[in-house]
């Protein structure tokens, strides 16, 4: 007998399925994707009169010709919103708040792109238009990292919009409303992250960094000309590599050629620049146009977006970013400014709410940066690291730099290579293509680790010119050349190291408690949660393995390190617990503790870390609490079996609907106690709950939350 023919798949179904496949490359498919042979489709959004270029208004209803027009927002008429479907209404509401971003809008297990965003998705990502008169494309949740990174690298802003309710939660919410409308009967969606080229943190959803070198978000504030003496400039700057989480904050005077500013942007190449609208002088704007022409530049409104120094310090105090920092003895809350920022506040103000003279612009630049990170929903995870350094221009004496605590930086004198010199000598990039080919950096860079490559670049930008420091570095080379077998073995070990600098920042930002329940990501419904959990655990275990490798390197060097002439090498490779010259911490106790804390292989496989008994007292307490509640619920069920004279009673349900007591219809209605409340039914059974079950289950959920925190 011949096998039955397989059911054929219609062309419409094929078209819908192909929209979710990841293309082999990101070339535009727009010419054939919209289902028309030749000619271009006029989409529904292109017919909207209020969306036409020249007729658009911002959220405050200011026209494009208005000098205060805000291109990042959009006015959407109420009558139009009321005619749309509930889900699309929410999309337009979000689009009106961030008109300059591409919305990756979660619908079920897919991120969908609508209207003008769908056109970008097809043109830039190679997605396919779905059938219909309105532009619509999308991809599965697991593809977010790949697709978002492509758009961000091309200069787009990407907003990740997640469902923060399940359908059951939505139904429960509607029951609490007196008269729910059709717009209430849709799951809540919130923006969980806005990603730009200068604010990438490479979370578990984003994937791995595509390049080794740092990309900085630079915030700059300039003192207006009438306040400055002569023709010079005074700048306040704040710049951060968001993948590492280190803030550089400083204020400096500059000459009329803006030499120090030019040097700063050459040494710390910004991917994105923030400035206060109307603040930069004509000379500064020329630098933005000439040197930073390919850099994203965004003007922020004075006061409300680009904060002054007082508001910056006020927000730092109110938001409690540094509550995990070590508090001083007289600080009860445990929220204290990091030393670098504390030094920028007035000594006369015990609350640290007044800037010190000479740091007003620096703190204002930090305020602009903080506002933007807050807007992108990453302020808490980055600021809470408390990683701040004062930026002092290279040509200022190093001893004035309050942040020069690293022994690498305590060199007293470094050569000034300004932006013009770096370009003319082709130190970092060649003059032909702007790439690294043929440059001094490419020639010298044989570093084995990503963080080594970043450090070498900074060393090249500011070479040593202090004879004793140069001599010590040469001694370090001789020491390594004198131990060739160890040097070769160490090189092989270093190649295995992950990018620990970025990895530690990533691990710091992973914890949900850190973001708090106020962060929408803590409410997001993610369908690939197990995949993300496995990635988190893989990152954490990679960091542990990295530290083990570093410990192994120290052990290899120990036999020969005592004979080293270089003070620098002795500091790096000797343990500070065993030698007065050593600065390397003894990691053995902590690594041993984590080795026995949980089953590493099981965690990799399941995506769940289960601490072993005795490792975490709070976890053990939560486990015991859950067991006690389970025991209490079982004992209660046994009592009800005797009470009703029925052995067939059992609990039913999953998740938040667990512990509904199933009672067969064979038990007469008269026998059912009054305190039993019907929760649901099925053929031949009724499911009840009681005040005692609810009390025990609520207590169990509380313990489960503590266990899973």
Automatic annotation (TrEMBL):
Give the similarity note.
Belongs to the DNA mismatch repair MutS family.
Tell me, in one coarse class, where this protein mainly resides.
nucleus
Q: Record's superkingdom?
A: Eukaryota
Q: Which GO terms describe its molecular function?
A: ATP binding; ATP-dependent DNA damage sensor activity; mismatched DNA binding
Output the Gene Ontology cellular-component terms.
MutSalpha complex
Q: Which gene encodes it?
A: MSH6
Q: Which controlled-vocabulary keywords does the entry list?
A: ATP-binding, DNA damage, DNA-binding, Nucleotide-binding, Nucleus
Organism this protein belongs to: Saurogobio xiangjiangensis
Domain DNA mismatch repair protein MutS core positions: 435-708
| The protein, known as | DNA mismatch repair protein MSH6
Database matches in Pfam families: MutS_I, MutS_II, MutS_III, MutS_IV
Q: Where is the composition biased (Polar residues)?
A: 8-18, 26-35
């Amino acid at each position: 007998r011949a096998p039955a023919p397989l059911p054929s798949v219609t062309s419409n179904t094929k078209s819908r399925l192909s929209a979710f496949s990841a293309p082999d490359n990101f070339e535009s498919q727009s010419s054939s994707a919209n289902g028309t042979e030749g000619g271009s489709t006029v989409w529904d959004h292109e017919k909207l009169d209020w969306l036409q270029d020249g007729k658009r208004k911002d959220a405050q209803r200011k026209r494009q010709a208005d000098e205060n027009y805000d291109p990042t927002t959009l006015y959407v008429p109420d009558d139009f919103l009321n005619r749309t479907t509930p889900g699309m209404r929410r999309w337009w509401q979000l689009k009106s708040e961030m008109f300059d971003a591409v919305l990756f809008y979660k619908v079920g297990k897919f991120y969908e792109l609508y209207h003008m965003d769908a056109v970008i998705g097809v043109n830039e990502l190679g997605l396919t238009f779905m059938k219909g008169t309105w532009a619509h494309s999308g991809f599965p949740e697991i593809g977010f990292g790949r697709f978002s990174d492509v758009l961000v690298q091309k200069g787009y802003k990407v907003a990740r919009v997640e469902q923060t309710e399940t359908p059951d939660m939505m139904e429960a919410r509607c029951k609490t409303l007196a008269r729910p409308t059709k717009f209430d009967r849709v799951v809540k969606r919130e923006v969980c992250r806005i990603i730009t080229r200068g604010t990438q943190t490479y979370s578990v959803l984003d994937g791995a960094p595509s390049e080794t070198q740092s990309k900085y978000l630079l915030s700059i504030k300039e003192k207006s000309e009438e306040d400055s003496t002569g023709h010079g400039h005074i700048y306040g700057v704040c710049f951060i590599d968001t993948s590492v989480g280190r803030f550089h904050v400083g204020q400096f005077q500059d000459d009329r050629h803006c030499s120090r500013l030019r040097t700063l942007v050459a040494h710390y190449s910004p991917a994105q620049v923030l400035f206060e609208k109307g603040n930069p002088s004509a000379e500064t704007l020329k630098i933005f146009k000439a040197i930073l022409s390919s850099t994203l530049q965004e003007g922020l409104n004075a006061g409300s977006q680009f904060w002054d120094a007082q508001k910056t310090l006020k927000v730092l105090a109110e938001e409690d970013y540094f509550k995990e920092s070590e508090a001083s003895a007289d600080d009860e809350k445990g929220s204290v400014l990091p030393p670098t920022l504390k030094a920028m506040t007035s000594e006369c103000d015990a609350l640290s709410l007044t800037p010190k003279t000479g740091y007003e612009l620096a703190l204002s630049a930090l305020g602009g940066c903080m506002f933007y990170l807050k807007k992108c929903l990453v302020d808490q995870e980055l600021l809470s690291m408390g990683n701040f350094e004062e930026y002092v221009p290279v040509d200022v004496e190093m001893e004035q730099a309050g942040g020069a605590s690293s022994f690498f930086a305590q060199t007293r004198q470094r050569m000034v290579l300004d932006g013009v010199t770096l370009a003319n000598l082709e130190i970092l990039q060649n003059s032909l293509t702007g790439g690294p080919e043929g440059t001094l950096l490419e020639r010298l860079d044989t570093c084995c680790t990503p963080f080594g490559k970043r450090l070498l670049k900074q060393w090249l930008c500011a070479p040593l010119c202090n004879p004793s420091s140069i001599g010590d570095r040469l001694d370090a080379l001789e020491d390594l050349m004198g131990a060739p077998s160890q040097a070769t073995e160490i090189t092989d070990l270093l190649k295995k190291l992950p990018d620990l600098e970025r990895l530690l920042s990533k691990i710091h930002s992973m914890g949900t408690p850190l973001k708090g329940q106020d962060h929408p990501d803590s409410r997001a419904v993610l369908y690939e949660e197990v995949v993300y959990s496995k990635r988190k655990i893989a990152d954490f275990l990679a960091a542990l393995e990295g530290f083990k490798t570093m410990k192994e390197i120290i052990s290899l060097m120990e036999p020969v390190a005592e004979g080293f002439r270089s003070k620098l090498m002795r500091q790096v490779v000797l343990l500070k617990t065993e030698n007065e010259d050593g600065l390397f911490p003894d990691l053995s106790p902590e690594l041993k503790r984590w080795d026995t804390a949980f089953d590493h292989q099981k965690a990799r496989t399941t995506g769940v870390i289960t601490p072993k008994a005795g490792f975490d007292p709070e976890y053990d307490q939560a486990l015991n609490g859950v067991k006690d509640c389970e025991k209490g619920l079982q004992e209660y069920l046994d009592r009800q079996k005797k009470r009703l004279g029925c052995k067939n009673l059992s609990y039913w349900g999953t998740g938040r609907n667990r512990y509904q007591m199933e009672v067969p219809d064979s038990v007469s209605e008269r026998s059912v106690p009054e305190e039993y409340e019907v929760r649901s039914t099925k053929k031949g059974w009724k499911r009840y709950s009681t005040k005692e079950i609810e009390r025990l289950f609520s207590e169990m959920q509380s313990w489960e939350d503590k266990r899973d925190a």
